[in-house]
Structures are given as structure tokens and as C-alpha cells.
Amino acid sequence: MSLDPASLRIDQRLLYFMDQLEILEEKRQKLNALIEEGWFNISKARYSMGNKQVSALQYAKFPRYWA
């Protein structure tokens, strides 16, 4: 018993979609780890330099569409 071409295309697209979801999840995990590391580095800098020496004015400026 063979599958019709439409079923094969749907199966291929589903497999591709699942692969892309897996890649997305890996990238999200990496992004979360980098964000966590960044917050940790900011807290270390504030601790070592004093609370008033590191402020939001010194954070990197991001374009408006990232916010």
C-alpha cells in the first residue's frame, strides 16, 4: 500500500516544521543563557564598582523596534 503524493508532501512538511521547531527551541535556550549571563555580569559590575557607578544610562542602546 503506497501513500498518495499529497500525503507524502504533508508528511515532508510536517517533518520540516518539527525540525524547525527544534532549532527554534535550541536558539531560545541559547538566548536565555546569554541574557542570564548578561544580567549576572551587570550585577557583578554593580557589586564591584558600587551601586551608583553602573546605571541604566550605561547599558547598550537598542533600536526602538527591539523593545
UniProtKB/TrEMBL annotation:
One of its GO terms (molecular function) is unfolded protein binding. It holds the Pfam family Vma22_CCDC115. InterPro entries: Vma22/CCDC115. One of its GO terms (biological process) is vacuolar proton-transporting V-type ATPase complex assembly. PANTHER family: COILED-COIL DOMAIN-CONTAINING PROTEIN 115. This is Vacuolar ATPase assembly protein VMA22. It comes from Electrophorus electricus (Electric eel).
